[in-house]
Design a protein that fits this description.
single chain, 338 residues, alpha/beta, eight-stranded mixed β-sheet, four-stranded antiparallel β-sheet, elongated, binds adenosine-5'-diphosphate, binds iron/sulfur cluster, binds magnesium ion
Length: 338
């Protein structure tokens, strides 16, 4: 079995609202638990998909594990080394190994620089190279991302969305990354181009043994890309396991609804047997109703169907991830199919 490249243990990241006089007067908690007690691992050559609605904390997980932002608590072990509390200067030599592909296609592409200069800069960050060596390496990178050499003289504004994404991927490869967090890498692209980028990322993984944390709200793309999937809800992972289990045999009501809202063919049986009433699923959401215990309770059709059991809203009994077999973990007191 391949080596573990990343291990994340009980990671939390809280953001603080402005601590003005009014928040003090209101006695409101000023901490936003963007990521709350998240644990997972990633092996070499493996992709973990990270899914969930906008605002659930996906990007914050990605930024925190790459130490682009400081964690509030927990630990991050990268390639056998605890990087949780490393200083910026201690992190610098590790930066080449772990890279971030930003959602924004223009991120990192200086509009005043031609592609050749963008790549030359990237290949020279961690290595001293002559101009000739940098030019050879830049061409090699273009080959790897299937871009024509003629694009070397283009400015970013002259590139299509798909080409910009490829140059962005080439920049990340230029430094020799082993682990890549790809944050919605296909969301700004046309559907036909999305497939090309997915295939490119998969080919590169095979060739280079890369590990990906693949963040996306597009579940079909996540299914294509990922060996395993973690589903987040309000800062927590509520279900995690092999992709086919998460997509086809979800045990958490939220995962089930997320997938069945897109891919109707899945889990028809559960709907037919009344395990989940999809139509009711989103209707019960009430932002004003405080969620204690299980955060999903205000939207959970199983909670409603079971007559609002006290376990689900017991503040002392927030559901924790439990193994339900085959490494499949679920945080729910009444998992589907049990
Ligand atoms: N720099 C920040 N300062 C304050 N709050 C933030 C910051 N970044 C993210 N958040 C908040 O953290 C939560 C998770 O955000 P994010 O990780 O961007 O979610 P996602 O990527 O799943 O859409 C949201 O409530 C968001 O408003
Ligand atoms: S613990 Fe209760 S409220 Fe939460 S997802 Fe499970 S059934 Fe629904
Ligand atoms: Mg995001």
């Amino acid at each position: 079995m391949s080596r573990t490249i990343l291990e994340v243990k009980q990671l939390s990241k809280y953001f603080h609202r402005n601590r003005g006089i009014f928040s003090a007067l209101n006695r409101r908690s000023d901490a936003i638990p963007a990521v709350d007690n998240v644990s997972f691992y990633l092996r070499e050559n493996e992709t973990m998909g990270l899914v969930g609605e906008s605002g659930c904390g996906k990007t914050t997980v990605g930024r925190t594990i790459l130490r682009l932002t400081r964690p509030t608590s927990g630990s991050i072990i990268f390639d056998g080394r605890d990087i949780t509390r490393l200083s910026d200067s201690e992190l610098r030599p590790l930066r080449k190994d772990m890279q971030f592909i930003f959602q924004d296609l223009d991120a990192g592409l200086n509009p005043k620089m031609r592609v050749q200069d963008i790549l030359r800069e990237a290949v020279s960050v961690f290595e001293r190279l002559s101009d000739a060596e940098a030019a050879v390496k830049s061409r090699m990178l273009l080959d790897q991302v299937n871009l024509k050499y003629s694009k070397l003289s283009s400015y970013p504004s002259e590139l299509s969305g798909g080409e910009k994404r490829r140059v962005g991927i080439a920049r990340v490869l230029a430094v020799g990354a082993k682990m890549i967090v790809a944050d919605e890498p296909t969301s700004a692209l046309d559907v036909s181009i999305q497939a090309q980028v997915v295939n490119l990322l998969r080919d590169l993984q095979k060739q280079l043994g890369l590990s990906y944390l693949f963040i996306s709200h597009d579940l079909q793309v996540v299914e294509l890309m990922s060996h395993k999937v973690a589903v987040m809800y309000l800062g927590r992972i509520v279900e995690m396991g092999l992709t086919e289990r998460i997509a086809g045999a979800a045990r958490h009501p939220y995962t089930y609804i997320l997938w069945s809202s897109l891919v109707d063919k899945h889990n028809l049986e559960a709907v037919q047997t009344g395990k989940v009433d999809r139509r009711a699923a989103w209707g019960v959401f009430d932002f004003e109703r405080p969620a204690s215990g299980c955060r999903f309770a205000p939207r959970c059709p199983v909670y409603e169907r079971r007559g609002r059991p006290a376990e689900c809203t017991d503040p002392a009994n927030e559901p924790q991830l439990r193994d339900v077999g085959g490494g499949h973990q679920v945080a729910c007191h009444f998992p589907l199919g049990s």
